[in-house]
Amino acid sequence: MSNLQRLREAFRTALDLPAEAPVDDLRYQDNEKWDSLAHMSLVAALEDEFSVMIDTDDVINMSSFTEAVNILGKYGVDFNE
Amino acid sequence: MNLFHPGARVIDAVTGEALTEDMIAAAATQLATEPGGVVFLPMETTLPVVARYLAALRLGRPVLLLDPEHDNASFVERFTTTEVHPDLAVLLTTSGSTGNPKLVRLTADAVRTNAEQIAEVLGITGDEVAVTTLPLFYSFGMSVLNSHLIKGATVVLERTGIMQRDFWTAVNEHGVTSLAFVPSQYEMLRRLRFDPAKYPTVRSLTQAGGRLRTDLVSDFAQRMATVGGRLYVMYGQTEAGPRMATLPPARLEEKLGSVGQALPGGAFTIEDDEVVYRGPNVMMGYAETAADLALGDVQGGVLRTGDLGHVDDEGFLFITGRIKRMAKVFGVRINLDDVEKNFPVAAVAGDDKLAVFAVGVSDDEARGLRTKIAEWLGTHFSGVVVRSVEALPLMPNGKTDYRALESSL
Q1: What sequence ranges are listed for the domain Carrier (chain A) (predicted)?
Q2: Which of A18, B159, B247, B401 is least enclosed by beta carbons within 10 angstroms?
């Protein structure tokens, strides 16, 4: 599985979305399931999935799927593979 | 009742707009044109809603604080009446969304007294600045608002939460001095590696809404101490309007695990192992039907909390459990027996989670069950844990051995 697919999967699991649900355009709180609790499980899932430790500032800046791609990029996760 | 001290300020963090006397007066004029009886108020965190809340209190109209994200038609159906007791000021919903939740009936005196009690023990003055961290229909959130407004302090209305940048920007922009959180938010703050040095005006944290594990109590007390700040552990129930006790920060380490001493004017006793609170902030009673809204005080200032506990020789209360089988999920009370009536599981309380045990279910079935139970509770699925077991452990009398289930978590 590509890193992008792994990221999509992590979003679906953390936000309790169906298997094929589109997630690339998701933004914090546009989706009613993306609240503070879901955000915490999302961050934990991303840390596990990509073996990274996400800084506090990055946790609170991760306001969309696109932002998650940018932030994980800073931690060396390559989404262009 | 007027909770809005002349020096008080309520500011919308997004628009920068401040609540004015004119806005409250306009809300009162509007209310006066509407039918009498209960004011049903979905408590969005906005200036017009706060204005309407304060206007209802001034007019002596009982106001029912509702969750704006729920369909509240059933409340309107159940509690529409003009026959209301003259002392009735605030109505709050009890636990969760299951069945037909009872309402807690509070007098203006109880609401005002509790706001004063809280302000006294927390040292709230006109210089304090609070920010909304909890929904305003939730008794803890309401009491943060009341205890600041009554002392001429500032309350910043912020609709995002601690996981979002905007929240923390507002904290620094408005010079917020205190933050109030429930246990699940402390768990989040720990994950966020909350560092009070980044928020130089924040000097006190308060905690209520369920038991916070003692290692986190110590942890946050220490974080605050490094910047000369404090953590206040508090204890409350909606039925007490809502707060009953606070643990003075200077005694926190020595009395770790205690929820503190009764607020001024209140007292705890233990009767048949149950914690009983007596104080001026106790509710008039519950309401299950519209007719109950005409009732007077049936409590006499006495609240049987349903908690088990003990009080030490200095009056510090320690809570050890619940008499009825209850769990708290994200600070909301859930009756475990109700869960078992609706789902084929054995239910126990985890740390701010509901834990259920189902016999012989597959992983997929367990996930499906978790989603269904969370939907039924109206809570986030991460508040529910489902475990598959081969068989439920039983006690010699044939009843489910809940202790064994709890210790297996």
Answers
A1: 5-65
A2: A18
Residue B329, H or E segment = strand B326-329
Q: Which residue of B lies nearest to A28 if distances are taken between CA atoms?
A: B164
The ipTM assigned to this model is 0.83
**Which residues on A lie below 8 Å from B163 (Cβ)?**
28, 36, 39-40, 59-60
Whether the full predicted model's pTM is greater than 0.90, yes or no, is no
The domain at B9-322 falls in which architecture? Answer: 3-Layer(aba) Sandwich (3.40)
The pLDDT tens digits for B144-196 are 999 999 999 999 999 999 999 999 999 999 999 999 999 889 988 998 999 99
DSSP symbols for B168-182: HHHHHHTT--EEEE-
Domain borders along chain B are 9-322, 326-407
Tell me which residues of chain A have a C-beta less than 8 Å from any C-beta of chain B: 16, 28-29, 33, 35-41, 43-44, 56, 59-61, 63
* pLDDT tens figures, B245-284: 999 999 999 999 999 999 999 999 999 889 999 999 999 9
* A59 contacts B196 by C-beta, under 8 angstroms: no
pLDDT one-digit tens code per residue, A39-69: 988 998 999 999 999 999 999 999 999 999 9
Is the C-alpha dihedral spanning B159, B163, B165, B169 positive or negative? positive
Region A3-19+26-74: CATH code: 1.10.1200.10
> Which residues in B lie closer than 8 A to residue A45 (C-beta atoms)?
none
Answer yes or no: do A37 and B161 touch at CB < 8 A: no
> In 3-state terms, what secondary structure has residue B306?
strand
- Stretch A11-28: mean pLDDT, rounded? 90
- Residue B176 near residue B168 (C-beta atoms within 8 A): no
In the block, residue with structure tokens 């934990």: A44
Chain A contact present for B188, CB below 8 A:
yes
One-letter identity of residue B135: P
